[in-house]
Amino acid sequence: MLRILQATLTNWFKGPTRKPLVLRGARQVGKSTLVRQFAKDQKLRLHEVNLELHKHLRPAITSLSVAAFLNEVQLTCKNGAPLGDDSLLFIDEIQEIPEALTLLRYLYEEKPDLAVIAAGSLLEFALASEDRSFSMLVGRIEYAFLGPCSST
User: Fold this and answer.
1) pTM value?
2) CA–CA separation, 115 and 129 (whole Å)
3) Domain 5-10+17-145 - what CATH class?
4) CA distance 112 to 98
5) Residue 53's pLDDT is what?
6) Which of 6, 25, 64, 121 is at 20 to 30 A from 101, Cα to Cα?
């Protein structure tokens, strides 16, 4: 199914100053499916980590070490390929380890050529929480919103 946001993702990916993209939207609107389809359409090697399932990544994330995190991602994804220009790093359910939002800043600063998309179905609650353990990243990440499909 063609989604309007696919064109947005293509423009983001091919843009000259690509920043990590945080894909927002309600549960079950197709955020993960959209990212997987985008990677396939662009012929990108997808490195997908779901922080709800891969909680072992917490130490690498909270250390804010890009090298340690990317090493753990490669071991977790087990596809044997390094993250390069032909790769897309997809961090799903990012709200499970809120410090991962802060790590996006360091990914942008240390690996600007790496395409990174993050998503989370309960992300809105994490962003609105007053007791959050991270600061909002202004100017270091981009946001896109995916709404539900409609028949019109």
Assistant:
1) 0.84
2) 28
3) alpha beta
4) 21
5) 94
6) 6
